[in-house]
Amino acid sequence: MDLRVGQKYSLKKKVGGGSFGEIYYAENVDNNEKVAVKLEAVYTRPSQIANEKKLYTLMAGGAGIPKVYWSGREGDYNVLVMELLGDSLEDCFNKCKRKLSLKTVLMITLQLLSRIEYIHSKGYLHRDIKPENFLVGLRNNANVIYAIDFGISSRYIDFKTHQHIEYREGRPMTGTARYASINTHIGIEPSRRDDLEAIAYMIIYLLKGSLPWQNVKAATKKDKYDAILQKKLDTPSDVLCAGIPREFKFFLDDIRRLDFTDTPHYSLYREIFKDLFVREGFCYDDKYDWCNLALQSSSSLNHILQAPKQVSQLQKSAIDIISDNSRNKNVRRVKMSQYISTPAVKPATRIQTLI
Q: Where is ATP bound in this sequence (predicted)?
C-alpha cells in the first residue's frame, strides 16, 4: 500500500523514532526527491513538531539548517517533511571506533560554534546539544554539519520586552544529562552559556572517546542525574581536558565564567581553534575521519533506500487514516597573546568561507 503525506510524499522506510513519534525515509512522487518525514501523534503536548516547524522557518536559509518542504496534519498525526541528511556525529563517531582525530574535531567545532551563534542570533536556545542532533549533509553538502531537533528549543529573548529572560531557579533539567551544563543540572534557567557548555562536553567526548560521567549506574533517573552532576563537580577542567590541547580547557573555563545574560565569545572561540588548526599544520580539505572508511559509499543512505520488509506498529495504525486522507485530497573576545604565545598564522581561506 502506498502510504503518503502531503499528497505527494510516499513513506518508504522507518529510520528512527522515540517518545516523540517516528521518522521515515520518503520520496516525492512528482520528482523522486528523497526526503525525511517526522510523524507525531496530534495529541502530543507540547507539540515538538510545531515548535520545530516554527524554528526551521525562522532560521531558513542559514548554513547548516535543514530545509522544510511541507508540514501539516494527516489524520491523527502531525507531519514534518524535511531535507534528507546523512549520518549523525554519533553515528560517525561509532564508525570511527569511538574516537576522532584532532583535525576532524576541530573542523566539527568550528561549524558547531557558527551554528549555535546563528541559532542564538534568532533569540533561541537549542537546549539539547548532543552528537545525535548534528548530522552531516549529503552529496554536495557532505562537508556541512547540520543542526537538527529543535523540539525543546526555547526563547531567551522575551517576546514582549525584547530583553533577556529573567533568571530563575528550580527549573527541571532539560536536554541530555551527559552533555548538560552544571547550571542546568542544578535547576537554573538555561541561557546561551549552557548551549556552549554542552558543546564543550560534546567535542571533548568526540576527541577523547568518553566522558568521566558516562555509564553511571543508579536506581532511579533522578539518582543517575544527581550522580552525573556530582561527577561533573568533582572533575576539574584540567583533569577533564588532560591529554588534549589547552584550547579546550580555555574554552570550557571561559564558558563557565559567563553570567546568565552574558553573550558568549563566539568569535574568540573560533579564533583560538582556527589558530590551533593552523599551528598543527592541518589542511581544511573537508576530509573527516569517516570519509576514509571503506565502503563509505554504501553507508546509511543506501541502507535507508532499501525497501522495508516490515511495517512498524505506528505505520500500521496510520495507514488507513493517512491513506484515506490522501485519497480525499487526491493524493560572544581578549588578546590572543594572553593565552597563546605562538604567533597566530592567518587561517586558510577555506576555513573562513565554510564557517
A: 38
Q: What is the CATH number of the domain that holds 56?
A: 3.30.200.20
Residue 251's alpha-carbon distances to 109, 313, 343, in angstroms, are: 11, 45, 19
- 3-state percent breakdown (helix, strand, coil) of the chain, nearest 5: 40, 15, 45
Q: Are residues 229 and 146 in the same domain?
A: yes
One of 2, 76, 91, 128 is an active-site residue; which one?
A: 128
Shared domain for 78 and 166, answered yes or no, is no
Shared domain check, 114 and 44? no
pLDDT at 313: 44
The model's pTM is 0.83
Contact present, 322 and 5 (Cβ < 8 Å): yes
State the CATH number of the domain containing residue 199.
1.10.510.10
> Which among 340, 207, 342, 206 has a CA at the least distance from the CA of 269?
340
Task: Tell me the CA distances in angstroms from 47 to 152, 176, 216, one per residue in order.
Answer: 9, 19, 31
> How many other CB atoms are there within 10 angstroms of residue 112's CB atom?
24
Q: Which residue has the cell 594572553?
A: 338
Known binding-site residues for ATP equal 38
* Residue 158 annotated to the active site: no
The boundaries of the domain holding residue 212 are 87-297
Residue-wise pLDDT tens digits, 75-101: 899 999 999 999 999 999 999 999 999
Q: Does 161 share its domain with 190?
A: yes
Q: Which grid coordinates are listed for 308?
A: 522495508
